[in-house]
Amino acid sequence: MVEDLETSLFLEYAKRRISFEYDNEETGELAVKILRTLIERNEAIPDETLALILGTSATEIRRILHVMHKTGLVGLARESVDQYRYEYKWFLNKDFIRKFLSQHINKVTTKLMHRINTLSSTTLYICPTCFRGYTLDEAYEYDFRCPRDDTELMQIDTPSEIAFLSNIIKNLRGEETE
């Protein structure tokens, strides 16, 4: 399967997120296999069917699907089988991926804008060893030395940092509109 940029970014994010969630790289790889199957089939699929396709236990598939649903990586549809039974099917499509990436880009952009606002209104210092940041008041309080490793704190070059972050935001917004 040839993947476009959106799909590969989405799959990489999913792999890292699920691997981190379970502290297990193999679980992240299984999540990517599940997502690829959903993308290739382009239809809602029950977890039992996914388990058969991937040759993995339905319990393991379900466990990963629920975490992916909770984090917004997959959608879930409930379909009536008969008067008393329902079947739950998992889905993913290109619009879903675009929407997810757009939301994720907006979250990152918001955080970067907050950082720019902080840089614009406050003098910040950083420890060159552990990279922990401190406000001017905190730097005074610690006598301009890092309380963790006693390294001398350095003032952040605010104009360069703001330009760097602004460039990242511009690039993210440019990617989003393509």
From TrEMBL:
Family in the record: Belongs to the TFE family.
Quaternary context: Monomer. Interaction with RNA polymerase subunits RpoF and RpoE is necessary for Tfe stimulatory transcription activity. Able to interact with Tbp and RNA polymerase in the absence of DNA promoter. Interacts both with the preinitiation and elongation complexes.
BP terms from Gene Ontology: regulation of DNA-templated transcription; transcription initiation at RNA polymerase II promoter
Protein encoded by which gene: tfe
Molecular-function annotations in GO: DNA binding
This protein's name: Transcription factor E
Domain named HTH TFE/IIEalpha-type: residues: 6-98
Domain notes: The winged helix domain is involved in binding to DNA in the preinitiation complex.
Organism, as annotated: Vulcanisaeta souniana JCM 11219
Source organism, top-level taxon: Archaea
Keyword Oxidoreductase appears in the UniProt entry: no
